[in-house]
Specification:
heterodimer, A: alpha/beta, two-stranded antiparallel ribbon, 8 strands, 9% strand, B: alpha/beta, seven-stranded mixed β-sheet, five-stranded mixed β-sheet, 12 helices, 12 strands, globular, binds thiamine diphosphate, DH_E1 (chain A), PdhA/BkdA (chain A)
Amino acid sequence: MHKPRLQLQASFDIAYLQYLDKQGQATQPLPDFATPDWLSHCHRQMQLARLVDDRAVKLQRTGRLGTYPSTLGQEAIGVATANALMAEDVYCPYYRETGALLERGVEIEEILAIWGGDERGQNFQHAPKDLPICVPIATQMLHAAGVAFALKYRHQQNNQPLQVAVASSGEGATSKGDFYEAMNLAGVWKLPMVFVVNNNQWAISVPRNAQTATQTIAQKAIAAGIPALQVDGNDVVAVAWAVRDAMERARRGEGAALVEAMSYRLCDHTTADDASRYRSASELEQAWQWEPVKRLDNYLRAQGLWSDAKQQDLDRELAQVMEVALTNWESRAPEPVTAMFDHLYARLPEGLYEQYDQLRDEQQGVAE
Amino acid sequence: MAAQDNGITLVEAVTQALAFELKNDPQVVVFGQDIGANGGVFRATDGLQKTYGADRVLDTPLAETMIAGIAVGMATQGLRPIAEFQFMGFIYPGLDHILSHAARMRNRTRGRLSCPIVYRAPYGGGIHAPEHHSESTEAMFTHIPGLRVVVPSSPARAYGLLLAAIRDPDPVLFLEPKRIYRAAKQPVPDDGEALPLDRAFVLREGADLTLVAWGASIKETLAAAEQLSREGIEADVIDPATLKPLDIHTIIDSLEKTRRCVIVHEAARFGGLGAEIAAQIQEYAFDLLDAPVQRVTGYDAVMPYYQLENAYLPGVERILAGARAALEYVRDSGE
Ligand SMILES: Cc1ncc(C[n+]2csc(CCOP(=O)(O)OP(=O)(O)O)c2C)c(N)n1
């Protein structure tokens, strides 16, 4: 055997960040942005996400929504991530992001529309440049890289502040080529983008250790030359710190970064899944011990910022918000069937007039 | 680039169109593998990086999924990305993004976002290239709702159709028949005039037979039409140019006159675009037909290595045989 003539040794560290421990006690002084108002806002938004989620699952059970991917247990990641974005940044979400979408300004009725099979839900009124939620795994990361290129290009053209593209995904998505190709390009082209990986331990029935042999997802970024860290994904402060830090870096023109947020999927994969087939009840029970809402709740109560009375007020308020949204959603006129052609091309090609007319006539036939 | 007296080639017309749009629309960015300093393996982007800078004419890492995918992100934010795949045989890793995202973005956001992308790829056989360099799988892409598939067959059409493709608000797969990249020169004024998409071009007129072909096969199809003309048979030669959405009406109009049709393509026969055109002719013009529609195509075989590629590609003789079958067909009256 030949002796190697040159030996290169590489070593790396992956930092792990936490501010609130499992009991909701601060493990270190909280960052400046974590004011009482900010913490209360996150507390509210996480609970709103949980409520919308719960309602969506029930609506699916009664046949009023199609398959729905719950975000139960992962609210801190979505809320903290979307909160770190400015309005002009571009969010490129995957499908398990009810919390992030709400924080991003997407209306509850839009979210219900999407899962209720109405494409108008993807027409995010308050986040018009954000990408629609992405169902094929990991493709959104490449779209985000393209978005980041466009943002950087615009910035160079008009000297406006650099905006950032943010892609979210699960840990299973990091097995796909799209993920590596996006990170590789983001490294080479120094793109203003942030990858937020929701490591909820399961990709449908495949546990994290059957998905990858790496110790962390974060270390995958090292091969692409971009920085990464792991955070406690059930700690809204830690996620927010990491995403904000990555965003600021990107805004300064220093390129992309990856945040791996450790969490646990407390729900089935979707309403079409039965997680009891592949994971133990005791594992699930364990995971409930450190879920994100209770943790923040404990912290706020210990600080004198929360009480049963305040919780009752909030419950009433959120129930009201949900009711209004449900009414708005249910009172929407259905979309005309011809909408499937209306937005296919900017202008309907002549070759499709006949099919369009056929569809319209069929609809009129039904109406008569 | 001033057109020389004897004109420019098809690939030079591509360069000329890209340069025109880079110059006139700051939202246009061009990217792909080896397209910068090297000017692309076929030199389609020759000199563009030098003139327009490495931030608008970009060499990418070697990853087709990435090339297809970032175009989607760019386009949603208002850029006009033009992505080159080095060969059509390497486009498949990008198919997910073309099919699942670019072609559907407008629809799934009810018009909020769209993907005005041009995906360019040299395609087709006949240049003695290695395996996977001679594919002609355009029919796969014509099946995708929301996508346009455009194939030029002359320098002037390459220039005019590429400009139209870049300016079109929807995604276009622009397939460049590399066998005729340098086959002929033609003066192509650099005037920024686009040609219409979704419109077939009638390249030759005659009352006896309709020949439909596109891309490099136009060359042999026109040669066959010349040969037939010497025998006193005059053929319409129609180049659909936009393969999807297809302008079937120009073909039907021709059939009203000729009543006989031959479709020529070098792609494999089964499920090829010839089948779609024949089906549409049958739906719209069954009563006009005096003979079954003939297809002259590549075989349903893997495109062979180059020693056999000429046997695979439909040449003038096969087109003539198809034409004679259509011309000589007499309906059995079944008395
Ligand atoms: C390309 C592709 N393959 C398969 C699927 C089916 N699928 C949907 S979600 C999923 C698991 C994804 O797991 P992960 O990325 O960890 O995200 P999580 O759902 O756990 O949040 C699979 C296999 C898909 N949507 N897209």
